[in-house]
TrEMBL record:
GO terms for molecular function: double-stranded DNA endonuclease activity; histone binding; protein homodimerization activity; sequence-specific DNA binding; ubiquitin protein ligase activity; zinc ion binding. This is RAG1. Residues 116-248 form the V(D)J recombination-activating protein 1 RNase H domain. InterPro entries: RAG1, RAG1_DNA-bd, RAG1_pre-RNase_H, RAG1_RNase_H, RAG1_ZnC2. Residues 40-112 form the V(D)J recombination-activating protein 1 pre-RNase H domain. GO terms for cellular component: DNA recombinase complex; endodeoxyribonuclease complex; nucleus. One of its GO terms (biological process) is B cell differentiation. Residues 1-39 form the V(D)J recombination-activating protein 1 DNA-binding domain. Pfam families: RAG1_DNA-bd, RAG1_pre-RNase_H, RAG1_RNase_H, RAG1_ZnC2. Residues 250-312 form the V(D)J recombination-activating protein 1 ZnC2 domain. It comes from the Eukaryota. It comes from Gadus morhua (Atlantic cod).
Amino acid sequence: SQYHKMYRTVKPTSGRQIFQPLHTLRAAEKELLPGFHQFEWQPALKNVSTSCNVGIINGLSGWASSVDESPADTITRRFRYDVALVSALKDMEEDIMEGLRESGMEDSACTSGFSVMIKESCDGMGDVSEKHGGGPAVPEKVVRFSFTVMSVSVLADGEDREVTIFTEPKPNSELSCKPLCLMFVDESDHETLTAVLRPIVAERNAMKESRLILSIGGLPRFFRFRFRGTGYDEKMVREMEGLEASGSTYICTLCDSSRAEASQNMVLHSITRCHEENLDRYEIWRTNPFSESVDELRDRVKGVSAKPFLETQPTMDALHCDIGNA
């Protein structure tokens, strides 16, 4: 009603129609939200429903009971990962077409061979408690998981090297960072975080094995996605890779050096960890095949004592920068 009042006053006084009628706004809004565009995966994604018209879904989809005694339907909201990626690509449709034209690729020749690099980020947003509200009892911390389309490249038929047709000009800006999931969870709560992010991890793994068919510029095109979890801070990397928290003797998210070793050796540090190895170590921690004491076991797995659940990309972390600077 507020909108219609403005509409009626501005139009007669200025004679200009600067407001759009409400229904056109609604239509424009629908196009911007995930769940509007038709697409297809080939082969179909495992463990993901086939309906494309999915809007905002309950992030605990599949979890029947409430987590931590909070009403389960308030804990988390998210978009389905593939639907959000489709929406992001459709937003960039003009950029992609322009990139094809600039690199002189004949539009109709390039329908397959597109690959998209996705940077994932996830961080706690601190205390969001209601100061004096009577809302549902939810945890008072929030975690946000989001992604950025870093680049789109295409390998034309018969060519042997990829041509990058789009690169995100401001990869670290919050404007290029698309939210995927918001959850009332404390980022230190490994169990709840795992429970909420597990469907996202499942969708991400399914998308690695498949390719997306989406109409861009009026032609169906084939996209493959590459995911890089480089937008996590050190605390979140430890969380996702199952390492002990930052007070641990094993200080680094990339190598196995202890505090004592790092203070002796400030120069020679190499990256020694990977996701697979952390998974293996967790299995050793869980099964204790050599029947060792807790201390011996901990020394063997170098502080990996929870199950890593999201593969992060080992890039230079804050700690190695500090060691290098020192």
